[in-house]
Specification:
The relative contact order is 0.05. The chain is built from 10 helices and no strands. The radius of gyration is 42 Å and the shape is elongated. The longest helix is centred in the N-terminal third of the chain and has 65 residues. The chain is mainly alpha-helical. Its main location: periplasm.
């Protein structure tokens, strides 16, 4: 019995050995054609990887250039806004500044102002009125000069600015009713004027002086909505914060 089992085991072992698969061929083995094919596939995969990397680098470079262009554009816009803001503050400062050695006050004569401006043209009359403010600081004389200009040239390209200057002068004299009329003219009749946003802010400040806080807030919010990212909007935002404080 034991002998029969031993013979059967030897037979099974021999059959298993004969049926075992051949060993796997080494990767480096094979014919020359196989090795060449494998090398070609490796080179092709590397080339594709290099191409994809270069493509991504090109995309990143373009994105950097785009970002640089956006940054330069934003810097330019910021400089423009700062310049407009400085101009606005200079306008206000010129109107409110007092000379350290003021000259004796001169009473404005509307008739003489009108007579003087009648000899000038449209541009000359406007420049003369502005010079009374900026150069000569004759604020009282500037008021009839601007009023005369507005009456004579209501459709002038300078009419919006003339009304704005008139409103500023009257506001500084606490003549809020007349100042409101001048600023309202800019808002209602000169929608494309670059002084419209500033005039809305001034109307809000007049509303504050009249204790109409709800009206002032509405005007400031209007400026922020219609003239976002402008010097006028920033000034309106400051006024709103002061009201809340």
């Amino acid at each position: 019995m034991k002998q029969a089992i031993l013979v059967a085991a030897m037979f099974f072992t021999t059959a298993t050995v004969l049926a075992a698969p051949a060993p796997v061929e080494d990767v480096a083995g094979g014919s020359n054609d196989d090795r060449v094919s494998r090398l070609e596939r490796i080179m092709k995969a590397k080339q594709q990887g290099d191409f994809e990397m270069q493509r991504r680098m090109d995309v990143l470079q373009n994105e950097v250039l785009d970002l640089r262009g956006i940054t330069e554009q934003q810097n330019y816009q910021m400089n423009q806004m700062l310049q407009r803001q400085r101009q606005l503050y200079e306008d206000i400062a010129n109107l409110t500044a007092q000379s350290s050695t003021p000259a004796a006050p001169v009473q404005a004569d509307a008739t003489s102002v009108a007579a003087a401006s009648s000899t000038l043209g449209e541009t000359g009359s406007y420049e003369a009125a502005v010079n009374l403010v900026l150069k000569e600081r004759k604020y009282d004389e500037a008021i009839p000069a601007f009023r005369n200009f507005i009456a004579k040239y209501p459709e002038s390209n300078y009419a919006a600015n003339a009304n704005y200057w008139l409103g500023q002068l009257l506001y500084n004299k606490n003549e809020f009713s007349d100042a409101k009329q001048a600023f309202s003219t800019v808002v209602s009749q000169f929608a494309d004027s670059n002084k419209r946003g500033d005039s809305l802010v001034k109307l809000g400040m007049i509303a504050e002086e009249e204790n109409d806080l709800a009206g002032a807030k509405a005007l400031y919010n209007k400026v922020i909505k219609e003239y976002a990212d402008s010097a006028s909007a920033r000034l309106a935002q400051q006024q709103l914060l002061a009201l809340k404080g």
